């Protein structure tokens, strides 16, 4: 999968931009605050209909403009589709081949993107919500059922939380209705957890191999999915998950009513990472955590390839300077397999020589892009 | 320039209707200006009457001129089954179908804590009261298949089942005359689960 041409109108500091890209490696070079990351962000935005940097769509619109537009034709092995995303204060409109999509869940997944940015390096140490967000985005873009179930889960969760808040102050709360809401929540939660486990197991397998290589065959990486503080394995079928959750909910019911909020479920779950059976979050070194995130990101590329039979587009935002030559080598091995890659950097020196093998280089300055042409093999 | 008060007030009134903004309201107001006086009198009379002449049936919650409503009073109606719907207008759909000859019960909405709708806001107590009379053998839940509609149906079935009365829910799946090609995953899944032997 690759995009040939990107069109932007009023997107951040780009008033108007039409640019052609190479299906291989594209490097954006320029000083700080010129719009390099904005370019990557716009591709990410086209894929997920949301930015990785902000939740406020208004910020994506150029100052004093009423709307922002990003569009591109996405080439896949057999087909090509035009994706277009328009944001204004009335919300966003997503269309595929000029047909507006009423549901974003029908739109997301058309363009598969893997982004690797310095913030990702916090994935292990950061809050559980960052890890859940990672799962939701990555699995959402490869499985429509995941997106739909998650949206349904969030709606029922909102109903249940509102009802629990009301119960907190009631003398004779309606336990029957709570039971119904719990049952409804558990049914969808089980689907979400089942899908998370399914893809996480694939991801673990692939990340394990990659990590093993980066660490000179010394480290074994493992993931543990945790729900209600229990480790969950893939072999659990849906009914086991349902029974488990119902049992857990009955234990926390009084606390839930007291606190007025739902305490168990996919919105509270987490993943733990282990290297050689040691918890990575507490005992891992900076370097180990970095390798783990890289392995995870590379495994993600492989997973998307396996599920969709297309390579995703890889976005590397200023991250190469954070990776040493060994880790860059692992990256190059994957990119070599025909993955369209966009790299931002302030100077070419941090980009490994192998990656500079015939990239197309663009100089970015103040919302403008100049194609510096294909850089020839430095050798 | 401001409109004369009568027309400004009329525009404001039209804007209270759903889906009508200022432009449409203005157009409607000026159209009203050119209508025959009899038509306008009829119109305003029905506007008032819809509120003063119509009541909710004290038995089933349907809208009616006389209490109890026509269906509840009808001797020929099969009194062994009650079909539960969300809105009075749903009754009309079933009556037009012409295949159901039992009683109805209007909930007047579905349970939705987010929108502030709880059990006491719906006609649930009156439904339970109706079931105490032993003539009812089956309750058919005909609620929308939104997640709120389904929660409400589940709630009612848990409430009624202990009394031994049969509780059923409308089937969901493929719409008649629709293409499988255009059906979404969830619909197909429902259709599969509820498949029937032929």
Automatic annotation (TrEMBL), chain A:
It is found in: Cytoplasm. CDD domains: ABC_RecF. ATP binds at residues 30-37. GO terms for molecular function: ATP binding; single-stranded DNA binding. One of its GO terms (cellular component) is cytoplasm. Residues 2-353 form the RecF/RecN/SMC N-terminal domain. InterPro entries: DNA-binding_RecF, DNA-binding_RecF_CS, P-loop_NTPase, RecF/RecN/SMC_N, RecF_2. GO terms for biological process: DNA replication; DNA synthesis involved in DNA repair; double-strand break repair; SOS response. PROSITE patterns: RECF_1, RECF_2. It comes from the Bacteria. Keywords: ATP-binding, Cytoplasm, DNA damage, DNA repair, DNA replication, DNA-binding, Nucleotide-binding, SOS response. The RecF protein is involved in DNA metabolism; it is required for DNA replication and normal SOS inducibility. RecF binds preferentially to single-stranded, linear DNA. It also seems to bind ATP. PANTHER family: DNA REPLICATION AND REPAIR PROTEIN RECF. Belongs to the RecF family. HAMAP family: RecF. This is DNA replication and repair protein RecF. It comes from Holzapfeliella floricola DSM 23037 = JCM 16512.
UniProtKB/TrEMBL annotation, chain B:
It holds the Pfam family RecR_C. Residues 80-175 form the Toprim domain. GO terms for molecular function: DNA binding; zinc ion binding. InterPro entries: DNA_Rcmb_RecR, Rcmb_RecR, Rcmb_RecR_Znf, TOPRIM_dom, TOPRIM_RecR. Keywords: DNA damage, DNA recombination, DNA repair, Metal-binding, Zinc, Zinc-finger. It comes from the Bacteria. A zinc finger (C4-type) spans 57-72. Transmembrane segments: none annotated. SUPFAM superfamilies: Recombination protein RecR. CDD domains: TOPRIM_recR. May play a role in DNA repair. It seems to be involved in an RecBC-independent recombinational process of DNA repair. It may act with RecF and RecO. This is Recombination protein RecR. It comes from Holzapfeliella floricola DSM 23037 = JCM 16512. The gene is recR.
């Amino acid at each position: 999968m690759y995009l040939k041409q990107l069109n932007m109108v009023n997107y951040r500091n780009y008033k108007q931009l039409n640019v052609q890209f190479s299906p291989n490696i594209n490097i954006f070079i320029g000083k700080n605050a010129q719009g390099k990351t904005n370019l990557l962000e716009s591709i990410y935005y086209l894929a997920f209909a949301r930015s990785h940097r902000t939740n406020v769509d208004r910020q994506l619109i150029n100052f004093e403009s009423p709307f922002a537009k990003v569009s591109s034709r996405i080439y896949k092995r057999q087909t090509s589709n035009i994706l277009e995303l328009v944001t204004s204060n009335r919300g966003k409109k997503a269309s595929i081949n000029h047909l507006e999509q009423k549901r974003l869940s029908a739109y997301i997944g058309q363009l598969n993107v893997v982004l690797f940015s310095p913030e990702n390096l916090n994935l292990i140490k950061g809050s559980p919500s960052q890890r859940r967000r990672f799962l939701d985005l990555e699995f959402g873009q490869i499985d429509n059922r995941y997106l739909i179930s998650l949206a349904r889960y969030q709606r029922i969760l909102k109903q249940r939380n509102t009802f629990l808040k009301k119960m907190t102050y009631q003398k004779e709360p309606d336990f029957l209705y709570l039971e119904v809401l719990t049952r409804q929540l558990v049914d969808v939660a089980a689907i979400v957890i089942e899908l998370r486990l399914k893809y996480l197991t694939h991801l673990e397998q692939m990340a394990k191999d990659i990590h093993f290589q980066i660490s000179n065959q010394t480290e074994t990486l493992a993931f543990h999915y945790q729900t209600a503080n229990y480790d969950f394995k893939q072999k659990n079928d849906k009914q086991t998950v349902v029974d488990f959750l119902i049992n857990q909910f009955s234990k926390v019911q009084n606390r839930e009513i007291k606190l007025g909020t739902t305490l168990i479920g996919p919105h509270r779950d987490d993943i733990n990472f282990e290297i050689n059976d040691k918890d990575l979050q507490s005992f891992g070194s900076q370097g180990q955590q970095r390798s783990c995130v890289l392995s995870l990101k590379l495994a993600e590329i492989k997973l998307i390839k396996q599920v969709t039979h297309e390579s995703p587009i890889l976005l590397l935002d200023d991250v190469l300077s954070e990776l040493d030559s060994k880790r860059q080598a692992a990256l190059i091995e994957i990119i070599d397999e025909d993955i369209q890659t966009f790299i931002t950097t302030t100077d070419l020196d941090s980009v490994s020589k192998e990656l500079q093998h015939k990239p197309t280089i663009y100089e970015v300055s103040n919302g403008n892009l100049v194609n510096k042409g294909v850089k020839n093999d430095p050798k | 320039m401001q409109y004369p008060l009568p027309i400004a007030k009329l525009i404001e009134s039209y804007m209270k209707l759903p889906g009508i903004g200022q432009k449409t309201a203005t157009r409607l107001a000026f159209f009203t200006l050119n209508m025959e006086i009899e038509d306008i009198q009829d119109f305003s009379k029905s506007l008032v009457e819809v509120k003063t002449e119509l009541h909710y049936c004290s038995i089933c919650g349907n809208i009616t001129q006389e209490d109890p409503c026509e269906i509840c009073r009808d001797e020929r109606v099969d009194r062994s089954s009650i079909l539960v719907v969300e809105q009075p207008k749903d009754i009309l759909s079933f009556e037009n179908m012409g295949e159901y000859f039992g009683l109805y019960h209007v909930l007047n909405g579905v349970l939705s804590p987010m929108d502030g709708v709880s059990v006491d806001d719906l006609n649930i107590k009156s439904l339970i009261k109706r079931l105490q009379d032993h003539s009812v053998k089956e309750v058919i839940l005909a609620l929308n298949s939104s997640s709120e509609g389904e929660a409400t149906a589940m709630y009612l079935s848990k409430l009624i089942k202990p009394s031994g009365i049969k509780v059923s829910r409308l089937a969901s799946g493929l719409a008649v005359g629709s293409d499988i090609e255009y059906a979404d995953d969830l619909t197909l899944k429902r259709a599969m689960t509820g498949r029937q032997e032929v």
